[in-house]
Amino acid sequence: MPLDMITRTVLEYYTAHPPATEDVWYGPWTTILTTLFPSTQGYIVTPQRRLPNDPESHIPDFVIEVVKLSTPPITFRTVLIVKIKNSQHWQSGIGALERQLGRQTDAAFAGTAHTKVCWIATIGPHWRYGEKDDNGQDPQPLIDWHHTTHDQASFDDLQGLAGLVGAL
């Protein structure tokens, strides 16, 4: 099942008319994530905690994380981290985005992630996903960059990611 018409329309509009700020991307990505990772399957989509004492976190950033609920007792395990940047950072912002994903995934391992965590990097309509093992290596992309989010190829890859996350 592809993304709903409203979400596709908003994503298509933002792709054609890049917004001035990244915050407009949060709503569509939250919708995508709650579609792929519903609470009925034990997932919760939430903002990620800020990294304490991180000198490189002086610029406000919004990172979404998907956690998987386990019971009993109730525990939350980080399974996916999503970093969103705005369109004006495409291509020049890739390196900074990758470094921040490294810090965020390392923080997840120090918290509730187990031996592997998946991630999505987004810069406007451009996105890709990958995974990171708890072995000190950099996050590894698993797909090439998509240049839109609202097409069927993107949805197919997002479903592939949902399968990887479900296997964690």
- Taken in chain order, the helices and strands follow as HHEEEHEEEH
Chain-averaged pLDDT: 88
* Biggest sheet strand line-up: 1-2-3-4-5-6
- Our count of helices gives 4
Using the CA coordinates, give the radius of gyration. Answer: 15 Å
DSSP summary, beta strand count: 6
Indicate the low-confidence ranges by residue numbers. Answer: none
Judged by helices, strands and strand pairing, the structural class is alpha+beta
Helical content band: 25-40%
Topology readout:
Layout: H1 5-16, H2 26-36, E1 43-47, E2 63-70, E3 75-85, H3 94-110, E4 116-123, E5 126-133, E6 140-141, H4 152-166
Parallel strand pairs: 3-4
Antiparallel strand pairs: 1-2, 2-3, 4-5, 5-6
Characteristic terms for this protein:
33% helix; 6 strands; six-stranded mixed sheet; 168 residues; alpha+beta
